[in-house]
Write a structure and sequence with these properties.
Elements: E1 2-6, E2 9-16, E3 21-27, E4 30-35, E5 38-42, E6 62-65, E7 71-75, H1 78-81, E8 83-84, E9 89-90, H2 93-103, H3 108-123, E10 134-138
Antiparallel strand pairs: 1-2, 2-3, 3-6, 4-5, 4-7, 7-10, 8-9
């Protein structure tokens, strides 16, 4: 089980190794599956876990089949919202997703190092503006 939590955002994942399935539910936080060099942006609910001023609907539960070599990621928005670069702009979600595809075949400790190095390079002296949480698991 993977649980990634940030304020009112949450992702819960249950992996069944025997059935090779992933059951997940997400509140705002994205869930990404990288398979065969392609990123699949998995559906999550766009409502918070805590206080909500709109209609509270039940969270959806989603099940996807897994294959050997799949890599599953969940993250807060901190990485993609971090300011930096030559023009002090946000890193952006597209760049983050491209980075996940780029690094997904590496061993997990190497992926962590690559993520750390890329964001530090991006920030280039700018302050970190938000928490940065990235969780990943590789299916063997």
């Amino acid at each position: 089980m993977i649980i990634e939590y940030n304020k009112y955002h949450l992702t819960i994942c249950i992996i069944d190794n025997e059935k090779k399935t992933l059951e997940y539910s997400g509140a705002y936080n994205s869930l990404y599956l990288v398979r065969d060099n392609e990123l699949i942006d998995c559906k999550v609910d766009k409502m918070p876990v805590g206080i909500h001023f709109g209609e509270m609907l039940p969270f959806s539960s989603n099940v996807i089949g897994l294959k050997k070599g799949d890599v599953i990621y969940t993250s807060s928005d901190g990485y993609s919202d971090q300011f930096g670069g030559a023009e002090n702009k946000k890193f952006r979600r597209k760049n983050f997703k491209d980075l996940l595809v780029e690094i997904h075949k590496e061993e997990m400790p190497v992926q962590k190092q690559m993520l750390d190095e890329r964001i530090i390079e991006w920030m280039d002296g700018y302050s970190q503006i938000d928490d940065i949480i990235v969780a990943g698991i590789k299916i063997n």
